[in-house]
């Protein structure tokens, strides 16, 4: 049966990419409002309540308001905003994560009517830290730092226009666009609450997001001192690096989040390596004193649109990777 899909906020970057990707599917019907009605509350309400699945690609306040409009008990909402990621009434849309009972969140997503799509930076941080905390190898009270490098498309339409209007293509840019720019300097970034909650931490990490002059791609790094890790490592000969590698390989076995034992490209990590793809690559580097946990993915792939489509696939009961680029 063909399912009806509505994208509320389809003119933004995330909405446009989801719409473009779904236009190629023959198992869904995209219900699109004409431009004149795109911002009409009544038209949006009607379309929302007629949909089998609705994607919210809206600012937080608008997403909260729109969620209240949905009276159809059968409509599944996948919200790509920050609004509901820490709401216990919504399922966090990261299928590869384990829940409190040891099962994977994909099982909850399949039956959920309210799904909160993860944030891009948060996806990498949680993917790196949650398995170690759940295994008891990284203490929940660990004081962590997270460095995250993103392409400028992560800033949405306005930032894309800023970068691409200066020279037409983001190349040969003048300052301040030519060099990487750190932001979130007040340590109040909107992803921090979900990073803490979903990783299972007791306090927020020092978070250092950086935007650079490439369009798509994300590289998240969490540095660790070996002294922060549990002293018991199974085998007395097991190294900290070896234990982490085993945890990741087992935790993400068979999923689109995959552990890469090789890791780098001749000692370098290119932040744009996964651009255009919907999977995520996890790797571990360092020595027996200082360790680097790294996650690479596309900020518009596993960091946004690809994740939303993966969640939709689970709801529809089709192969999880349908329509994804892997």
Account of the protein in words:
With 326 residues, the chain is of the alpha/beta class. It has helices at 13-22, 41-50, 60-69, 105-111, 120-134, 156-167, 192-199, 240-251, 301-316; strands at 3-8, 28-31, 53-56, 76-79, 91-92, 114-116, 145-151, 181-182, 206-212, 218-225, 257-259, 280-286, 290-297. It has 2 domains: 3-118 and 304-316, Rossmann fold, CATH 3.40.50; 120-299, Dihydrodipicolinate Reductase, domain 2. It has a 7-stranded mixed sheet with strand order 8-9-7-10-13-12-11. Strands 2-1-3-4-6-5 form a 6-stranded parallel sheet, sandwiched between helices. A hairpin with a 3-residue loop joins strand 12 and strand 13 (290-297).
CATH superfamily of the largest domain: Dihydrodipicolinate Reductase, domain 2
Q: Runs with pLDDT <50, length 5+? A: none
Oligomer: single chain
The rounded Rg comes to: 20 Å
Q: According to CATH, what is the topology of the largest domain?
A: Dihydrodipicolinate Reductase, domain 2
Number of domains: 2
Strand order of the largest sheet: 8-9-7-10-13-12-11
- What distance separates the N and C termini? 26 Å
* DSSP summary: helix tally: 9
Mean pLDDT: 94
Structural class: alpha/beta
Task: Report helical residue fraction.
Answer: 25-40%
Q: Given the C-alpha coordinates, what overall shape results? A: globular
Per CATH, which architecture of the largest domain?
Answer: 2-Layer Sandwich
The CATH class of the largest domain is Alpha Beta
Biggest sheet statistics: 7 strands, mixed
Strand fraction band?
A: 15-25%
Order of helices and strands: EHEHEHEEHEHEHEHEEHEEEH
């Amino acid at each position: 049966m063909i399912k009806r899909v509505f994208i509320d906020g389809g003119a933004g970057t995330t909405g446009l990419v989801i719409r473009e990707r779904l236009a190629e599917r023959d198992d869904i019907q995209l219900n699109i409002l004409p431009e004149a009605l795109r911002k009409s509350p009544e038209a949006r309400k009607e379309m929302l309540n007629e949909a089998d699945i609705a994607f919210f690609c809206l600012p937080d306040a608008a997403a909260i308001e729109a969620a209240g409009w949905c009276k159809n008990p059968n409509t599944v909402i996948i919200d790509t905003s920050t609004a509901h990621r820490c709401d216990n009434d919504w399922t966090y849309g990261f299928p590869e994560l384990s829940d409190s009972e040891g099962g994977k969140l994909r099982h909850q997503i399949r039956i959920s009517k309210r799904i909160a799509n993860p944030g891009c930076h948060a996806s990498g941080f949680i993917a790196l830290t949650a398995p170690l905390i759940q295994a008891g190898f990284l203490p929940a009270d660990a004081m962590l730092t997270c460095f995250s490098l993103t392409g400028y498309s992560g800033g949405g339409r306005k930032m894309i226009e800023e970068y691409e209007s200066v020279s037409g293509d983001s190349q040969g840019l003048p300052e301040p666009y030519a060099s990487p720019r750190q932001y979130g300097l007040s340590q109040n970034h909107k992803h921090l609450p979900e990073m803490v909650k979903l990783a299972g931490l007791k306090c927020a990490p020092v978070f250092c997001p950086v935007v650079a002059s490439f369009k798509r791609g994300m590289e998240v790094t969490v540095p660790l001192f070996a002294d922060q890790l549990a002293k018991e490592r199974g085998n007395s000969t097991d190294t900290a690096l070896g234990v982490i590698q085993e945890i990741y390989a087992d935790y993400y076995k068979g999923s689109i989040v995959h552990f890469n034992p090789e890791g780098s490209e001749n000692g370098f990590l290119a932040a744009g390596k996964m651009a255009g793809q919907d999977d995520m690559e996890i790797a571990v580097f360092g020595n027996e004193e200082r360790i680097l946990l790294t996650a690479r993915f596309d900020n518009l792939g596993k960091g946004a649109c690809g994740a939303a489509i993966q969640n939709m696939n689970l709801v529809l009961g089709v192969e999880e990777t349908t329509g994804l680029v892997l």
